[in-house]
Structure formats: structure tokens, C-alpha cells
Amino acid sequence: MPDQPPTPGPQPRGATIVAAGLLLAALALVVLYTSSRAFFSPLALVVIAAIGVAALLLQLRLRPGLSSNSTSSRGPLWLNALGVIFAAAAVCADVLHLNGAIMLIAALAAVLSFAVGGIVVLNALRKGRG
Fold it and tell me: What is the per-residue pLDDT for 74?
């Protein structure tokens, strides 16, 4: 009978579970302490999109084996930075009571930027696995 190498056991998931719990807690706080009227605001979409991108990037960072593929599985930094800039512009337009169209366009651009960055990361992860 040939010697078979021992099969590795399941990897510990402590850090990943703690990070997922913290992100769920952040999302729960946003939902619980926000009035129902505020969910019709474009800024709520920006916050939810930013939490989703943070969850994706944190999972990428904490999952063992993915950190070695640092160049192939990372989204473009400029795209995430552009999303943050558009999100800040949407918040400033809302706080300064500028034209509502400016806030809507900036919020939409931020959400699209976060979405495209997330798609790039997920596509790189799918290609790396297959």
C-alpha cells in the first residue's frame, strides 16, 4: 500500500469570522439607527456600497492563500480612490445643500466605482480558482 500524504485539516477561521461579525454589526447599526425616510437617500446607497467593498477587501486580506496573489486579485487602487472621492463629494453636496443633481451624480458615480472595483476583484478571484 503506497504511503499517502496526510490530508490537511480545515484551516482555522477565527479572524475571518470575527471580521465578518464586525461588518455585520456595522451594517446592522446603519440599518437600526437610520430612519426609514433616510433609506431613500442616495447617501445610504453609498454607505451600503462602501461597507460591501470593505467586506470584500477584508475577506481578500484575511483569507489564507489569497494574499500570495496580491497583484492578480486586487482591484485597481485608483478605482477605489475615485469611489471615495465621489462619496466625499456626495456628502459635501448634501451637507452644503448644493444642487440635488450634483449629489445624485456623485453618489451614483461612487456606487458604480465601488461596484466595478468589486467586479474586478471577484473576477480575479474566480480566474485564480479555476
Answer: 56
Per-residue pLDDT, 66: 55
Cell of 115: 461596484
> If residue 115 lies in a helix (H) or strand (E), which one and from where to where?
helix 100-129
Distance, CA of 77 to CA of 37 (rounded, Å): 33
Write out the three cell numbers for 68.
500570495
Helices (H), 63-99: 77-95
Walking along the chain (130 residues) 10 residues at a time, the average pLDDT comes out as: 57 66 78 74 77 73 58 67 88 87 88 84 71
Yes or no: say if 45 and 75 are a contact pair by the CB < 8 Å rule: no
Nearest to 23 by CA among 51, 43, 44, 48: 51
Residues 6 or more apart whose Cβ sits within 8 Å of residue 106: 86, 87, 89, 90, 93
